[in-house]
Task: inverse folding
């Protein structure tokens, strides 16, 4: 892969990957590191992946999971209690509007399959077909999960207001 191809791919996918990584890490520098690692892994491939976008997103997710496993092995700090409200570690300039931030916090309260699908659909504006390809589930299952996540969000937001 030459430099111009990599730069083109970076310009296409870096912002989406960063937002996706930030949804996991809740930390700007960790999210940037995950994105950087994904593109580094891309440069190390002998054969170009067929679905580069999905491949990059899988790399980010898998790298995050690996990092969390390492932290759990070596750390006594309970990371389950960390939330997005920690302003010291989180760069919230992406979420400038208060209502947008509130919605994002509510989405973070969803269970993992619903949270991921909701983020991909609403924040990254992926189609249900793209989500189904990425998660290796049917389009109908994506729609069902979106419906269920909306119901859960409605309950969460109803409690807030």
Result:
């Amino acid at each position: 892969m030459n430099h111009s191809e990599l730069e083109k791919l970076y310009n296409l996918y870096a912002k989406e990957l960063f937002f996706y990584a930030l949804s996991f890490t809740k930390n700007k520098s960790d999210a940037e590191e995950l994105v950087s690692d994904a593109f580094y892994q891309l440069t190390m491939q002998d054969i170009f992946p067929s679905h580069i976008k999905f491949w990059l997103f899988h790399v980010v997710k898998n790298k995050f999971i690996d990092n969390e496993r390492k932290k759990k092995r070596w750390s006594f700090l309970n990371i389950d209690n960390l939330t997005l409200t920690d302003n010291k570690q989180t760069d919230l300039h992406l979420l400038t509007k208060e209502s947008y931030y509130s919605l994002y916090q509510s989405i973070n309260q969803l269970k993992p399959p619903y949270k991921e699908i909701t983020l991909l659909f609403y924040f990254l504006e992926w189609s249900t077909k793209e989500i189904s390809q990425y998660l290796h589930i049917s389009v109908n299952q994506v729609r069902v999960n979106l419906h269920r996540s909306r119901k859960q969000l409605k309950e969460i937001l109803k409690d807030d207001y």
The two ends are 51 Å apart (CA to CA). The chain has two domains: 1-92, 95-160.
